[in-house]
Amino acid sequence: MIFIIHEPSRVRFGVDVQSLRGLSFLARKMCATFSCVYGTIYTIIKILRPINYLP
């Protein structure tokens, strides 16, 4: 994502599009991982909650 000012705007735009695509892919991957971890933790808490209320 580092641009050289004297480059043509077409090349600069191409580099920008490539890095934006990589960033969106990375964000989607992180979001999927986060939702997966959150769902697992939520399920574990839901399973353990009735056990915690027992004396």
UniProtKB/TrEMBL annotation:
It comes from the Bacteria. This is Uncharacterized protein. It comes from Candidatus Nitrotoga fabula.
